[in-house]
Specification:
mainly alpha, 8 helices, single chain
């Protein structure tokens, strides 16, 4: 997991600088697609989220293939920190896409990576499960990431996923008992 965290940390630094990424989109998607666990590092066992759990995928690029130098990391890299960093990189990428200051080729690469992430059948579901997590920081970051992704999808005229629409219908259309009195 340490190599995974180091690659993500270097990717974060590159995206923060607005650097153009040179590798295949799938290599970056592998590192950005969260495999959620609870704060203790155990897989989430919620029935709604059980179908969104799993490994990062079959194809695992090596850290060297991303031509990212693995600098020493002082932070303890557990599952929670990896997930928080993944969400942060996604948010920074979305911010760079929307920024007029980001170089065109870098912006296009970030856009392609986000679009591939969105095409992942369970990406939205993973984020909505994280949004419901008992860990307040993970929940907050997942909510911010979902909001940014939703804005990106609307701005880019990308069709919203069925899982996101179902989540919104279920959670945003429910009335509390006090609302029914009016």
């Amino acid at each position: 997991m340490r190599d995974f965290f180091e690659v993500l940390e270097q990717l974060y630094k590159k995206v923060l600088l607005g650097a153009t990424l040179a590798n295949d989109n799938q290599d970056y998607v592998f590192y950005l697609n969260p495999a959620f666990s609870d704060p203790a590092g155990s897989p989430v066992t919620s029935p709604e989220c059980s179908s969104t759990l799993g490994a990062q995928g079959d194809r695992q690029p090596s850290p060297a293939s991303l031509s990212i130098s693995a600098a020493p990391v002082c932070l303890k890299s557990d599952a929670r920190e990896v997930t928080l960093l993944q969400l942060t990189v996604i948010r920074v990428m979305l911010t760079k896409i929307l920024s007029a200051e980001t170089e065109f080729h870098a912006k296009e690469k970030y856009r392609e990576i986000i679009q591939v992430l969105l095409m992942s059948s369970d990406f939205d579901s993973k984020l909505t499960c994280m949004f419901q997590n008992s860990d307040k920081l993970l929940s907050h970051m997942a909510a911010k990431c979902l909001a940014s992704l939703l804005y990106f999808q609307l701005k880019e005229k990308i069709t919203l996923s069925n899982s996101w629409i179902a989540f919104c219908q279920k959670n945003l259309s429910e009335y509390s008992e006090s609302d029914k009195k009016f």
